[in-house]
Design brief:
elongated
C-alpha cells in the first residue's frame, strides 16, 4: 500500500517529486561522503551499527563507501549470518537513494549510453536482473538503481530484488571475514 501511494504521488507531482528526489539523493551522498570518517564509530554498536553502516554506505550515489569492508571485518567478530542479513537489509534501504534519483532525474540521465545499456538489460531481465546486479560486488549498482527508478520499476519489487541479491553478497563477504579470522588465529599461534 505504501509503495502504491508513493508511486501515485510521483505520478501526480512529477516536477516536484523529480526535484526533491534528485536533491535528496545528492545531499545524502554528499553528507555521507564528507562525514565518512565519523561514521566508522557505528561499528561499535554491533549488529545495529552494521545495519546503519551498510545503509549509509549504499546510500551514496556514485561515491564509494567501504560497506563491504565493514561487513568482512564484522563477519570475523560477530555471527556471520546475522551480519549478512543486517548488512543486506541496511544496504537495500540505502539503495533507495539511487532509485529515487532515477525517478526524479529522468531528464538528466535518459540519454547516457551506459544507462541505455543497463535499461535494456533491466527491461529484458526485470527484477531477476536487479537481483543479479545486487548480488555481484560491482560499482555499477548505483546506475541499476537509477535506471530502475527511471523505468518506474515498482519500488517494492526493486527493494525485494535488491535485498535478496545483497543478502547473498553480504553473507558470502561475512563468511569470508569469519573464515579469515580463523586463518589469522592459526597463523599467529
Amino acid at each position: 500500500m505504501l509503495a502504491e501511494g508513493f508511486t501515485e504521488f510521483v505520478r501526480r507531482h512529477k516536477n516536484i517529486a523529480s526535484l526533491v528526489a534528485v536533491l535528496a539523493a545528492l545531499v545524502i551522498s554528499w553528507g555521507i561522503f564528507v562525514y565518512s570518517d565519523r561514521l566508522a564509530y557505528l561499528a561499535r554498536y554491533g549488529y545495529i551499527g552494521i545495519f546503519f553502516l551498510s545503509m549509509l554506505g549504499n546510500a551514496t550515489i556514485l561515491l564509494p563507501m567501504p560497506s563491504m569492508v565493514s561487513v568482512y571485518i564484522a563477519g570475523g567478530l560477530f555471527n556471520p549470518i546475522i551480519v549478512g542479513f543486517m548488512a543486506s537489509a541496511g544496504g537495500a534501504i540505502g539503495e533507495l537513494t539511487g532509485y529515487l534519483a532515477g525517478v526524479g532525474g529522468h531528464r538528466i540521465i535518459k540519454e547516457r549510453k551506459l544507462f541505455i545499456l543497463i535499461e535494456k538489460w533491466v527491461h529484458r531481465y526485470g527484477v531477476v536482473g536487479i537481483f543479479l546486479f545486487a548480488m555481484i560486488p560491482n560499482p555499477f549498482f548505483d546506475m541499476v538503481g537509477l535506471t530502475a527508478g527511471l523505468m518506474r520499476v515498482p519500488v517494492f519489487q526493486f527493494l525485494v530484488a535488491t535485498w535478496l541479491g545483497q543478502t547473498v553478497k553480504f553473507l558470502l563477504i561475512s563468511y569470508l571475514g569469519a573464515g579469515s579470522t580463523g586463518l589469522m588465529e592459526r597463523w599467529l599461534h
